[in-house]
Amino acid sequence: MAAHKSSNHNVRAIAVVGPTGAGKTALIQALASAASGGSGAVPNAAGQSTETGFTAIDYMGDHYALIDAPGAVDFLADADFALPAADIAIVVADPDPDKAVLLQPFLKAIEQLKVPHALFINKIDTARGRIRDLLEVLQGVSALPLVARQIPIWKDDHVSGFVDLAMERAFLYQQGKPSQRIDIPADLAERETEARFHMLEQLADFDDELMESLLSDVTPDQDVVFADLVRETREGLIAPVFFGATAQGAGIRRLLKALRHDTPEPQHAAARLGLNGAGAYVMKISHAGQAGKLAYARVFGGALADSTQITLSDGSQQRPGALFSVNNGQTKKISDAREGDVIAIGKLDPVAAGDMLGAGAPAAKIKMPFEKRFPVYQLAIATKDRKDDVRLSGALQKLVEEDSGLAVVHDQTTHEILLQGQGEPHLRTVLDRLKARFGVEVSAQRPSTPYQESIRRSAEKRGRHKKQTGGHGQFGDCVIQVKPLPRGSGFEFVDKITGGAIPRQWIPAVEAGVKDAMAKGPKGFPVVDVQVTLIDGSFHSVDSSELAFQMAGRLGMSEALAECDSVILEPVEKLTIYTPSAGTPKINSAVSSHNGQILGFEPREGWPGWDKVEAYLPHSERQNFIIELRSMTQGLATYEAEFDHMVELTGRRADDVAKRAQHAAA
After folding, report:
1. What share of the chain is helix, strand, coil (3-state, %, to 5)?
2. How far apart are CA 382 and CA 384, in angstroms?
3. What is the rounded average pLDDT for all residues in the chain?
4. How many CB atoms lie within 10 A of CB 128?
5. Which of 3, 25, 119, 156 has the smallest number of CB atoms closer than 10 Å to its CB?
6. Which residues contact residue 187 at a Cβ distance below 8 angstroms, ignoring those fewer than 6 apart?
7. Sorting pLDDT into bands at 50, 70 and 90, what band is 383?
8. Residue 106's Cα: distance from chain center in Å?
9. CA–CA distance from 374 to each of 8, 74, 407, 575 (Å)?
């Protein structure tokens, strides 16, 4: 972090969250500009954050670590372990009421974590409707009461300033300068009185004395109002609302001043996490080239020196390789850090995001109130140069350590390495990192669907393997009956040999040969749901062997399957889709167009204006389904999926799958 400019020990961590396009990163830059004496005016830059970033600022003797959380749904997981360590969160919103729903994933995350928060409505200069109407819409997506701290001053159909309801003062925005204080405009006096009383009523819901004052028509002291605003914000009882425009630097200093008073001390975050004693909570892992593995962490419970013995989550003790301040991607070696600081700790292993590192005392893994995010998009990857296979394995391990939304699965059925993540943009970014940071280039393609085969008819076949060479020959002979089993039964082998037609020691070899033939049926896929009964056979006292009977079993099964009317089985998954309600009709239509089946839908619990849709969807149709879902729902819909059953594939789809399998085998 930047050097502290005063002896004041107040250190705060503020998470800045919000959807792509709201101006979240621009707000962080504006806060940094205003804090350093600059204009505070920062354009809303194009592009989006794909990783959690840390910016350090000093303002009026206090030190702040601003946590820039990614704004796109694809990258939200990167901040999952950083948000719990924040003292307060600023949720950046667009003034367009139609975009209010975009805030819900962010609000739900911080509400679930019980992180105090406030809203900052950015681009207020572009607002085209009444702010009170916008607040009404925003209230529909917030579990906490939204308490307006300001009302706008309008001029020529745009917002030119604001009235601070707590201070009862009016201000006009000035481009790149602090706002100019003015008298409250006469035409706003009645509106200001009404809005302030509403604010006081909201505060009184959590303060009996204030409620009594209001009922008695007693005007509360300004100190009482400010004390309630601070307490109720810190305790997560209300979410105050501010507005401004980063492009003009409007409202930035007012927000900074509010944060000085409203942000809780680090001890509150430590208590919320259930932490006792001194140590550091790990927010993020990064593998930073020559610097090696860095654990971005927040210090709690006291100062932390680079000579401190740190207890890791496995109980081992290590001394950190080094401590670093962090600011805008830059690190600087430091000898110690104070309580509340966000730092990077070098060369600690094993350590993962979510760990609590004890300063001499035992450490504990923090139990987060959320599950690992379900991977909604996947790619089958392979190195372009086989010599990179070992490097790929190491690089993937490091990337998974850094990103809780990423997973790597070695599919034993299709023999593919599956890279799984939160969407197509997410995995595209991961592939770019693989190449840029680790020098590993991979090919990426749609994962194979694990089709299977089964049979409709029964058959009986003799499998005979006879080969005469110099010396001992080879002889194995078996008769098997093959018949279909109900779906999901798997494979059943029944031994009905009598009279020693095949010696006991070679019967397992017949079963092994049968299973070999089932690895790829007539249509090119593994065969399931069959019963094979061994009913007869013969042997040669000299030439019979385990290998010979295995070959006989394979031959008999292959010939039987060719006559059993094989059918392709397709895996079907059960999807639980979460979507804003406005997208539900479109999603129902999309499921049908992807050969799926809607099972039903209901309101999503705890998410006003959202639905939970359940559906069956073929595995083969899922690959790009998330892209389609998000294009219909402003990028918000997501789902969870699990295998449910196999279903017979018929008609043109079955023919197409079989042709592709034959082409791949050619």
Report:
1. 30, 35, 35
2. 6
3. 92
4. 10
5. 156
6. none
7. very high
8. 12
9. 43, 11, 10, 11
Distance CA 64, CA 1 (A): 9
- The phi and psi torsions of 526 (rounded to 5 degrees) equal -60, 140
Model confidence over 613-657: pLDDT tens digits?
Answer: 999 999 999 989 999 999 999 999 999 999 999 999 989 999 999
Is the pLDDT reported for residue 504 higher than 80?
yes
CA distance 482 to 458: 5
Q: Which of 364, 289, 300 is nearest to 337 (CA)?
A: 300
445 strand-pairing partners: 380
Q: Residues 270-287: pLDDT tens digits?
A: 999 888 888 899 999 999
What is the bridge-based pairing of β-strands 530-538 and 491-495? parallel
From 231, 270, 431, 437, select the one nearest 364 (Cα to Cα). Answer: 270
Residue 177: C-alpha distances to residues 250, 275, 277 (Å)? 8, 42, 44
Buried residues in 391-423 as b, exposed as e (16+ CB within 10 A): ebeebbebbbbbbbbbbbeeeeeeebbbbbbbb
Tokens encoding 185: 């405009």
- Output phi, psi for 273, to 5 deg: -80, -10
Task: List the strands of the sheet with 416-421, edge to edge.
Answer: 407-411, 416-421, 377-383, 442-445
Per-position b or e across 198-229, b if 16+ CB within 10 A of its CB: ebbebbbeebeebeebbeeeeebeeebbebbb
DSSP secondary structure, 260-278, as one string: HHHSPPHHHHHHHHT--SS
- Residue-level pLDDT at 596: 96
By C-alpha distance, which of 382, 439, 378 is closest to 406?
Answer: 378
Identify the CA nearest to 177 among candidates 163, 194, 190, 161. Answer: 161
Q: Model's pTM, two decimal places?
A: 0.90
CA 154 to chain centre: 40
Residues 242-255: pLDDT tens digits?
999 999 999 999 99
- Closest Cα to residue 631, out of 428, 447, 425? 425
Length of the chain: 666
| Each residue's pLDDT tens digit, 557-591 | 999 999 999 999 999 999 999 999 999 999 999 99
